[in-house]
Specification:
Blueprint (H helix, E strand, L loop, with lengths): L6 E6 L3 H10 L2 H4 L1 E7 L2 H11 L3 E5 L7 H6 L8 E5 L4 H10 L3 E4 L4 H24 L18 H13 L6 H8 L3 H12 L3 H17 L6 H7 L5 H12 L3 H8 L1
Parallel strand pairs: 1-2, 1-3, 3-4, 4-5
Length: about 260
């Protein structure tokens, strides 16, 4: 029986005691989760998320420099893979977290058993999504990843067109939702229902297909290809590429072209 995929997680928490408790009391290894980085402010958290593409983000709301919800909104990640912690009972934060569609919102002090249960449920869902991504591989001569071009919903088709026109820019769900005149949460649900994959999976897969096209050309290095296809950093590109195609970008180019 194969071991479950180990998922990466970043903690953004400015309270040292809380951070220490999270690191030392949550049974990360039993959950199949590795804490790959921690930081204490929203700006550093945003940089780390964009650079490393963690599978899960666990963040406080009230952070120095930039609050947790602003940080999450600026990053190209699934809000559904974010767990928010807050020491404040404030409806505006709760409402914003719900609007973004975060996976869960917990008030401090956090119950360890409850957090472990939530993390376990989220980890199971993410592993299923990753299996879906690897199953989208096309071993033939056409696109590296098979993607639907048209679905039975005009709004989703418009968003697919938006992705295809703007994939090279720094776009995310919020931009697509504004374009389609839908809430982010509504678009996220609608896109998954109609396309069979979520918005970010489609965006990343389309970018990877474009990257594979560029790999056929001589003279472009991997960093240039990543930037040209809208990935924020080469490291982010490499992680997403391997998740979909099972190889690093360099290995894939060497084996295919």
């Amino acid at each position: 029986m194969n071991e479950p995929e180990v998922l990466s997680l970043i903690i953004v928490e400015d309270e040292k005691i809380m951070l220490k408790e999270l690191l030392n009391t949550i049974r990360w290894s039993e959950l199949g989760i590795m804490v790959t980085a921690t930081c204490s402010d929203g700006e550093e958290g945003e940089r780390l998320i964009k650079e490393t593409a963690p599978d899960i983000v666990l963040t406080d709301i009230q952070l120095p420099k930039k609050n947790g919800l602003e940080m999450v909104a600026n990053c190209n990640l699934l809000y559904q893979n974010v767990i928010v912690l807050s020491g404040y009972t404030d409806f505006k934060y709760t409402r914003k977290a719900i609007q973004l569609g975060v996976y869960d919102y917990l008030e401090k002090p956090v119950d360890d058993d409850e957090l472990e249960s939530i993390l376990g449920e989220l980890a199971t869902r993410i592993r299923e999504e990753h299996k879906k991504e690897s199953s989208m591989r096309n071993e033939g001569d056409r696109e590296a990843i098979t993607l639907p071009r048209n679905v039975n919903n005009h709004q989703v088709n418009c968003v697919i067109g938006f992705i295809r026109e703007n994939y090279a820019s720094s776009i995310g769900l919020s931009d697509a939702a504004e374009f389609a005149k839908l809430s982010e949460n509504h678009l996220s649900t609608l896109f998954r229902e109609e396309a069979g994959i979520n918005f970010l999976q489609y965006l990343n897969a389309y970018r990877i297909n474009k990257a594979v096209e560029l790999m056929k050309k001589e003279g472009l290095n991997i960093s240039e290809i990543a930037t040209s296809c809208g990935f924020p950093t080469p490291g982010y590109f490499a992680k997403i590429f391997k998740r979909f195609l099972g190889q690093s970008p360099t290995q894939y180019r060497d084996s295919k072209f």
